[in-house]
Protein backbone atom coordinates (compact mmCIF):
# COMPACT_ATOMS: atom_id res chain seq x y z
CA UNK A 1 0.00 0.00 0.00
CA UNK A 2 1.30 3.44 -0.92
CA UNK A 3 0.52 7.02 -0.02
CA UNK A 4 1.74 10.09 -1.89
CA UNK A 5 2.21 13.24 0.14
CA UNK A 6 4.23 16.44 0.27
CA UNK A 7 6.72 17.32 2.99
CA UNK A 8 5.29 20.43 4.70
CA UNK A 9 7.94 20.60 7.43
CA UNK A 10 9.57 24.03 7.10
CA UNK A 11 13.13 22.70 7.32
CA UNK A 12 12.33 19.51 5.40
CA UNK A 13 13.49 16.07 6.53
CA UNK A 14 16.82 17.24 7.89
CA UNK A 15 18.43 16.86 11.33
CA UNK A 16 15.79 17.06 14.08
CA UNK A 17 12.67 16.43 11.93
CA UNK A 18 14.39 13.47 10.24
CA UNK A 19 15.28 12.00 13.65
CA UNK A 20 11.70 12.40 14.86
CA UNK A 21 10.32 10.92 11.63
CA UNK A 22 12.62 7.88 11.69
CA UNK A 23 11.81 7.25 15.35
CA UNK A 24 8.09 7.38 14.53
CA UNK A 25 8.56 5.08 11.52
CA UNK A 26 10.58 2.59 13.60
CA UNK A 27 7.82 2.46 16.22
CA UNK A 28 5.23 1.27 13.70
CA UNK A 29 4.08 -2.38 13.67
CA UNK A 30 5.10 -2.81 10.01
CA UNK A 31 8.20 -1.75 8.05
CA UNK A 32 7.82 1.54 6.20
CA UNK A 33 9.68 2.82 3.15
CA UNK A 34 9.88 6.38 1.79
CA UNK A 35 10.93 7.64 -1.63
CA UNK A 36 11.23 10.96 -3.39
CA UNK A 37 9.03 11.21 -6.47
CA UNK A 38 10.72 9.06 -9.12
CA UNK A 39 13.38 7.81 -6.69
CA UNK A 40 14.16 4.50 -5.07
CA UNK A 41 12.46 3.72 -1.74
CA UNK A 42 14.58 3.65 1.42
CA UNK A 43 13.97 2.38 4.94
CA UNK A 44 11.95 5.10 6.71
CA UNK A 45 13.41 3.99 10.05
CA UNK A 46 16.98 4.77 8.95
CA UNK A 47 18.11 8.30 9.79
CA UNK A 48 20.95 8.14 7.27
CA UNK A 49 18.69 6.88 4.47
CA UNK A 50 16.03 9.51 5.17
CA UNK A 51 18.52 12.36 5.32
CA UNK A 52 20.10 11.32 2.01
CA UNK A 53 16.71 11.75 0.30
CA UNK A 54 17.21 15.50 0.41
CA UNK A 55 13.50 15.99 1.07
CA UNK A 56 13.10 19.73 1.55
CA UNK A 57 9.80 21.48 2.25
CA UNK A 58 7.54 20.99 -0.76
CA UNK A 59 9.15 17.71 -1.86
CA UNK A 60 6.72 15.03 -3.07
CA UNK A 61 7.33 11.68 -1.40
CA UNK A 62 5.76 8.25 -1.42
CA UNK A 63 5.29 6.28 1.80
CA UNK A 64 4.81 2.53 1.41
CA UNK A 65 4.04 -0.46 3.61
CA UNK A 66 3.29 -4.09 2.79
CA UNK A 67 -0.37 -4.64 3.66
CA UNK A 68 -0.13 -8.38 3.07
CA UNK A 69 -3.51 -8.49 1.31
CA UNK A 70 -5.58 -9.19 4.46
CA UNK A 71 -8.29 -6.91 5.85
CA UNK A 72 -6.68 -6.49 9.27
CA UNK A 73 -3.28 -5.90 7.68
CA UNK A 74 -4.81 -3.26 5.40
CA UNK A 75 -6.29 -1.47 8.41
CA UNK A 76 -2.88 -1.47 10.09
CA UNK A 77 -1.18 -0.22 6.93
CA UNK A 78 -3.74 2.57 6.54
CA UNK A 79 -3.26 3.64 10.17
CA UNK A 80 0.54 3.65 9.76
CA UNK A 81 0.34 5.73 6.58
CA UNK A 82 -2.11 8.13 8.26
CA UNK A 83 0.28 8.62 11.19
CA UNK A 84 3.33 9.28 9.05
CA UNK A 85 1.48 11.50 6.58
CA UNK A 86 0.17 13.58 9.48
CA UNK A 87 3.75 14.04 10.73
CA UNK A 88 5.01 15.12 7.29
CA UNK A 89 2.06 17.51 6.87
CA UNK A 90 2.87 19.47 10.03
CA UNK A 91 5.06 22.53 9.29
CA UNK A 92 6.52 22.31 12.83
CA UNK A 93 6.34 18.68 14.07
CA UNK A 94 7.24 17.56 17.56
TrEMBL record:
Provide this UniProt record's keywords sorted from A to Z.
Answer: Cytoplasm, Phosphotransferase system
The UniProt entry's GO CC annotations, sorted and at most eight, read:
cytoplasm
Gene Ontology biological process terms from the UniProt entry: phosphoenolpyruvate-dependent sugar phosphotransferase system
What positions does the domain HPr occupy? 1-94
Please name the InterPro entries in this protein's record: HPr, HPr-like, HPr-like_sf, PTS_HPr_His_P_site
Per the record, the domain of life is Bacteria
Q: Where in the cell is it found?
A: Cytoplasm
Q: What is its main location?
A: cytoplasm
* Task performed by this protein: General (non sugar-specific) component of the phosphoenolpyruvate-dependent sugar phosphotransferase system (sugar PTS). This major carbohydrate active-transport system catalyzes the phosphorylation of incoming sugar substrates concomitantly with their translocation across the cell membrane. The phosphoryl group from phosphoenolpyruvate (PEP) is transferred to the phosphoryl carrier protein HPr by enzyme I. Phospho-HPr then transfers it to the PTS EIIA domain.
Specify the protein name. Phosphocarrier protein HPr
Amino acid sequence: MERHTVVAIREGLHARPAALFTRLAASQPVPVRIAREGGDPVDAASILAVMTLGADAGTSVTLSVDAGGHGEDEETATAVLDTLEEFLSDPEPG
